[in-house]
Specification:
This protein is α+β, with helices and mostly antiparallel strands. It has a domain of 92 residues: SH3 type barrels, CATH 2.30.30. It is built from 2 helices and 8 strands, in the order ααββββββββ. The strands form 2 sheets. Strands 1-8-7-6-5 form a 5-stranded antiparallel sheet, with no helix packed on it. Strands 2-3-4 form a 3-stranded antiparallel sheet, with no helix packed on it. A hairpin with a 4-residue loop joins strand 2 and strand 3. The two termini are 78 Å apart.
Length: 171
């Protein structure tokens, strides 16, 4: 850049600062400093009575609120085995843990359980099959359904294993 042009721009910038504006800045600073320097404390919020949390009588929030049932012990029987000629149902293609009980239906003749799983909500009754281990519904209650599965027990045959699906809360 040309040295003369640079000097001219610096002189123009300096000439913009006159003594009038310096006096205005000084008077503004003086008036600001003369303001009261005390700040009133903020009012305390109105708090209600103290609450003491007592969890002794409440349920554990980390446990399921559904009724916990203990399944029957597994029983090995020599004559129990899956029927290879029986046609498989749609729900036997999925693991039992993929299903959750969401309700029941009853009429004069039978009780049905509603299970949410792959493909939506399914209605089953005692005797229907589901799960990969030849699971068969053996009992339908208002808050649970019991399923007996057949699992292999090595060369000794098959083992009947009881599984309980409890009603899922808020479903």
């Amino acid at each position: 850049m040309n040295r003369g042009l640079w000097m001219a721009s610096v002189l123009a910038a300096i000439s913009g600062c006159s003594s009038d504006s310096a006096e205005q800045v000084a008077s503004s600073a003086t008036s600001t400093l003369s303001l009261p320097s005390t700040i009133e404390p903020a009012a305390l919020p109105d708090v209600g009575p103290a609450f003491i949390y007592k969890a002794a009588g409440l349920r554990d929030p980390f446990r399921s609120s559904a009724v916990e049932l203990v399944p029957r012990p597994a029983v090995a029987r020599a004559q129990v085995q899956p029927d290879p000629t029986r046609g498989k149902h749609f729900l036997e293609g999925f693991a039992l843990k993929q299903f959750e009980m969401v309700g029941t239906l009853s009429n004069a003749g039978a009780s049905f359980v509603l299970l949410r799983g792959p493909g939506g909500v399914h209605r089953l009754k005692v005797g229907d099959y589901l799960g990969r281990n030849d699971g068969r519904v053996v009992a339908v209650g208002e808050r649970h359904v019991e399923v007996i599965e057949l699992v292999p027990e090595g060369e000794e045959g098959w083992l009947e294993r009881s599984r309980i699906l409890a009603l899922k809360a808020h479903s």
